[in-house]
């Protein structure tokens, strides 16, 4: 070795991997991973918070809907209650009016009943006077005074002279006022009974006229012998007129004025 040169010794140093600090790249990776993990945890916490808020908002919304429904129900109930109260008051008013009308009708019915009873008594007395107090005979008779008996009926020949003669309708009304009808002849015996007691030549209304294209008696029965009427064709507005001494009846206008014959059932004595 030359003079003046220093001796240099080299030694080999070996570092173990476990004790060596991580490379810079690896430390960077660990840092990035840590940051990502922290960010994910933050996002998860935010998402959970939002879900809780949404659930809370949904519950509050449901409660609001329920509360609104309750308010509406209460309002409807109060409105219906007011309407029902008004309806009850109106029904009470109507009921009071009906009670007043019922009382009035009851009084009228009582008055009518009293009048009817008085009328029945008057009619009964009239019947007694008509049938049982004739001056020439105290015994009750089958016909009223002025009526002619042909069993089983009594006949009244109203021989009024103009201007006291009547149309067919007026004559029927007069008979009804005497508890009778214009004379009816359902058979030859009744027809003959009308004929043999008649008199005069002016003609008498009997209870036969045309109704709905058919000859009808006042008791609603049909004319069975069309040969008894001349002409026999039924024409609306025509009525039957009986002339003394004729075997047939004449078809004349019901508006003409004539005498008339009333008929009623004879009293059984």
Automatic annotation (TrEMBL):
Keywords: Coiled coil, Disulfide bond, Lectin, Membrane, Transmembrane, Transmembrane helix
GO cellular component terms given for this protein: plasma membrane
Coiled coil: 81-115
TM region positions: 56-79
SMART domains per the UniProt record, alphabetical: CLECT (SM00034)
InterPro entries: C-type_lectin-like, C-type_lectin-like/link_sf, C-type_lectin_CS, C-type_Lectin_Receptor_IMM, CTDL_fold
Domain spans labelled C-type lectin: 150-263
Gene Ontology molecular functions: carbohydrate binding
Identification of the protein by name: C-type lectin domain family 10 member A-like isoform X1
